[in-house]
Every structure is written in C-alpha cells, then in structure tokens.
Amino acid sequence: MAKKARKAAGGTPAVNALTAAGTEFTVHAYEHDPASASYGEEAAEALGVPAGRVFKTLVADVDGELTVAVVPVAGQLDLKALASAVGGKRAAMADPAAAERTTGYVRGGISPLGQRRRLRTVLDASAADHATICVSAGRRGLEVELSPSDLAELTSAVLAPIGRA
Predict the structure, then answer these.
(1) How many angstroms from the chain centroid is the CA of residue 38?
(2) Cα–Cα distance between 119 and 113 in angstroms, integer?
(3) How many degrees, rounded to 5, is the angle at CA 133 between CA 19 and CA 10?
(4) 142 burial class (0-12, 13-18, 19+ CB within 10 angstroms)?
C-alpha cells in the first residue's frame, strides 16, 4: 500500500487524518452514479473488490448516544448486537440529518475517520479476516484502503460481530 502524503490525494478530513497519523493507506476514486441504489455495493463493483472487503459506515442511536457501526456492504447491521457491543440496551438507526451534522459528512460519504465530532465506533469482527479493507474516504466516489487494525486504532473501535448476511 502506498502512503498518500498530499492533501491533494483526497483532501477530505478522513484522508487528512490518515496522513497526519502517518498511517499507510491507498485512496481509490471512482465515478459515483447518483442513481445507484447502494453506495457500498457501487464502490465494491467500481473498484473490483469483493463486497466482503468493502465496509459501510452507519450511524445509529444507542440509548440516546450516536454510535458508528462499520459493517461489510454485503450484509446488514444487527442493531441488537451493536447495542450489546457498547453495553447498551436499544439501538436504532440515527436520523440522517443528525448523522450528517455530527460527522460532517453526507450520507453515502460518511467515513469512520476524520469526523467533526468523534463518536464511539464498532467495527464488525469480520474485518479482521482481511489484510486490508475499504471504507469511505469522506465523499461519494472516494474510498480509502487500510488495515483493519489501523482503522480500529485510529477510531478507538471495538471489534464485535455486529454484521449479518
């Protein structure tokens, strides 16, 4: 993987955070189709990466606290498992406007990195099965590839089985 040291490599808060941390990563850009039904599946197809290695960033409300869930695009988020992973009782998907306002990103481009306000984060345990995974780099049509351990470290993520097929 090549380390991208220039802001021009993506210029998003996520890319800037990775650069500042000295983390090895690769930025992948593709032409986003606004008519696409699934941002994550579109990314996997455009990049030629198996859907199990491309992870989507979802924001949920766990007992009144916004929480980030990072799960494979090929599956779904198990809200009960997410709540359990952070010691909560109930979880529901967050209001999209609240998710955008809190993270500083738009839907379909929310990255677990470089958020306006750092939220507690849970990374699906399946990420550990891969040397690298792809997550949003902070805008539609831009992904960043990095090791799951680096992502977990930079986001202080808990690894837990929160995805389901």
Answers:
(1) 14
(2) 10
(3) 35
(4) buried
Which of 55, 93, 91, 52 is closest to 71 using CA atoms? 55
Q: Other C-beta atoms within 10 Å of 67: how many?
A: 22
Look at residue 4 and give its three-state secondary structure: coil
Calculate ∠ Cα 134-141-56, nearest 5°. Answer: 40
- Tokens 């189709």 identify what position? 33
pLDDT digits (tens, 9 = 90+) for 33-62: 887 778 888 888 889 999 899 999 999 999
What global pTM score does this model have? Answer: 0.90
pLDDT tens by residue, 60-96: 999 999 999 999 998 999 999 999 999 999 999 999 9
Cβ 14 vs Cβ 136: under 8 Å: yes
Give ∠ CA 98-37-94 in degrees, rounded to 5. Answer: 20
